[in-house]
Amino acid sequence: MYEETGPNELQALMRAISTMSCEVSEQLEHNSSGIGQDLMKVGGLNKDVMVKLQAFDRMSQELGVISNVVQHCSELMSRANVGVQEVQTIVSQITLAQFRHRLQNALVSSGSAVDAQSVCDEQIF
Fold first, then answer.
1. Which of 32, 35, 116, 124 has the least C-beta neighbours within 10 A?
2. Which parts of the chain fold into alpha helices (H)?
3. Angle, CA of 108, 91 and 89, to the nearest 5°
4. DSSP letter (8 states) at residue 6
């Protein structure tokens, strides 16, 4: 079985996921803030809407915490010897195609040895 060694691929994957969760958190915060501002302009901000916007804020905070935990875990994994094939298998099993492609791009830009093309191909059932 072919397995490339080098940088810890699982660590690179976790860092990419950490980065992406930060991005999602920022998008949630930006979108919920924009909705709140728009509703205030038209006078449509009521208690129920405010509670839902606060829920979005909590989700954003939770994603930030998850991102920090994943980042710390990736730092602790520096001794683990996980190869490219294992990470490609993990990434290829992500069913949300847009997320999978963003993750692959994050891995490639982080210098991971994961071959984006090998996990980019859509499988049609």
1. 124
2. 9-42, 47-76, 84-92, 97-109, 116-120
3. 115
4. S
Could you tell me the mean pLDDT of each successive run of 10 residues in the chain, 125 residues long?
Answer: 56 86 88 84 79 86 85 74 79 86 84 58 42
* Rounded Cα distance, 50 and 118, in Å: 45
Cα distances (Å, whole numbers) of residue 70 to 12, 16, 44 = 11, 9, 38
Which tokens is 119 given? Answer: 């996990």
* pLDDT value at residue 81: 67
3-state secondary structure of 52: helix
Distance, CA of 14 to CA of 53 (rounded, Å): 29
DSSP 79: G
pLDDT computed for residue 63 by the predictor: 86
Number of other CB atoms surrounding residue 9 within 10 Å: 25
CA distance 103 to 90: 11
d(CA 80, CA 41): 53
